[in-house]
């Protein structure tokens, strides 16, 4: 039960603080809210400059309970040198990207010890940083907005040894997340490769075995009204609403929002050396994108049998 509560509390704490702050505005403590929002005006662009990470927050004991519940594991295959910057492509998205969160925005799996001198930044929707207090919580874990301004800053004005983790498939990939399926949305996702070329940041394929196993989802067929609604949300808001469920809070025999306790193993592959090209051509982008796709498939094939998949399992690249 302790691990189940931990799995909830870490994710919900920031949202709860935002609600409490808004509530205080309607009480005798309204001045606290006014002072915070006044300060927020001057601090608005901090997330775009790497934020304010806190090793204390990243090392909270609650993250270790969160890790052990599934459990979640981070596997290193190659060293990363601190004189380079990196873009990690994280696959698959799953419903919530729990492996990405645990491995790169906390120290539960000892990412800083496994990759000494490398500072990970997990990129997520910029809209999350418009929520008061929640933004502070996200920044404390080293989470940043997934937009060009932020990535340009981290790769050009923040020194070396930075690793930006981008969940490449995004909302579109989450729509196909289901247990037993290993599929990524990548074939037409080339923006991250262009960014890597512009900054000379090495690309690192990363695959999380088990990410799709922790929730069950209702999959709407292409052309159905449900898929139409999801795509409209994705286009105009940036995320796609999914109808999914996990287990109940007090019983694994009931439905709820607690994820199933299925192992998630995130394997970080070999970095692909990328040259710095201020104006990369489409030919350059296509070349390194093809190299990245090949490296990701190779990573999947080299490790799939170690984590419960049959030798015949094929990674579907869409």
Written account of the structure:
- This protein is α/β, with parallel strands linked by helices.
- The chain has a single domain, classed as Glycerol-3-phosphate (1)-acyltransferase (3-Layer(aba) Sandwich), CATH 3.40.1130.
- It has 12 helices and 12 strands.
- The chain has helices at 2-24, 30-43, 55-58, 61-69, 98-104, 111-114, 134-140, 148-156, 170-174, 191-199, 225-236, 282-303, and strands at residues 72-76, 86-91, 119-124, 143-145, 162-167, 183-184, 202-209, 216-217, 244-247, 255-256, 264-268, 316-317.
- The chain has a 7-stranded mixed β-sheet with strand order 1-11-7-2-5-3-4, sandwiched between helices.
- β9 (244-247) and β10 (255-256) form a beta hairpin.
- It is globular.
- The two termini are 39 Å apart.
As laid out across the biggest beta sheet, the strand order is 1-11-7-2-5-3-4
Uncertain regions spanning at least 5 consecutive residues: 1-10
What is the CATH class designation? Alpha Beta
Count of helical regions: 12
CATH topology, which one? Glycerol-3-phosphate (1)-acyltransferase
Mean pLDDT: 90
Q: What is the structural class? A: alpha/beta
Encode the helix/strand succession as letters. HHHHEEHHEHEHEHEHEEHEEEHE
CATH second-level architecture: 3-Layer(aba) Sandwich
Quick gist of this model?
The chain has helices at 2-24, 30-43, 55-58, 61-69, 98-104, 111-114, 134-140, 148-156, 170-174, 191-199, 225-236, 282-303; strands at residues 72-76, 86-91, 119-124, 143-145, 162-167, 183-184, 202-209, 216-217, 244-247, 255-256, 264-268, 316-317.
């Amino acid at each position: 039960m302790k691990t189940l509560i931990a799995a909830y509390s870490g994710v919900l704490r920031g949202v709860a603080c935002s609600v409490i702050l808004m509530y205080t505005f309607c009480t005798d403590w309204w001045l606290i809210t006014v002072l915070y929002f006044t300060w927020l005006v001057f601090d608005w662009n901090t997330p775009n400059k790497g934020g304010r990470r806190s090793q204390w927050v990243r090392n909270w004991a609650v993250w270790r309970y969160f890790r052990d519940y599934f459990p979640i594991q981070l596997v290193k295959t190659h060293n990363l040198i601190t004189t380079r910057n990196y873009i990690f492509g994280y696959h698959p998205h799953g419903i919530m990207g729990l492996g990405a969160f645990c491995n790169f925005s906390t120290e539960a799996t000892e990412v800083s010890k496994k990759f000494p001198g490398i500072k990970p930044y997990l990129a997520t929707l910029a809209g999350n940083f418009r929520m008061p207090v929640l933004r502070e919580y996200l920044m404390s874990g080293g989470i940043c907005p997934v937009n060009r301004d932020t990535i340009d800053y981290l790769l050009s004005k923040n020194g070396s040894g930075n690793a930006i983790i981008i969940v490449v498939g995004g909302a579109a990939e989450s729509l196909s997340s289901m247990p037993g399926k290993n599929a990524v949305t990548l074939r037409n996702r080339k923006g991250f490769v262009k960014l890597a070329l512009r900054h000379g940041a090495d690309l690192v394929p990363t695959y999380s075995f088990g990410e799709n196993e922790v929730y069950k989802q209702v999959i709407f067929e292409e052309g159905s009204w449900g898929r139409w609604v999801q795509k409209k949300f994705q286009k105009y808001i940036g995320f796609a609403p999914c109808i999914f469920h996990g287990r109940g809070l007090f019983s694994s025999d009931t439905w709820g929002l607690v994820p199933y306790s299925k192992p998630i193993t995130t394997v970080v592959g070999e970095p692909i050396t990328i040259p710095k090209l201020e104006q990369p051509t489409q030919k350059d982008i296509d070349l390194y994108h093809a190299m990245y796709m090949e490296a990701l498939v190779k990573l999947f094939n080299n490790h799939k049998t170690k984590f419960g998949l049959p030798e015949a399992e094929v990674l579907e690249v869409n």
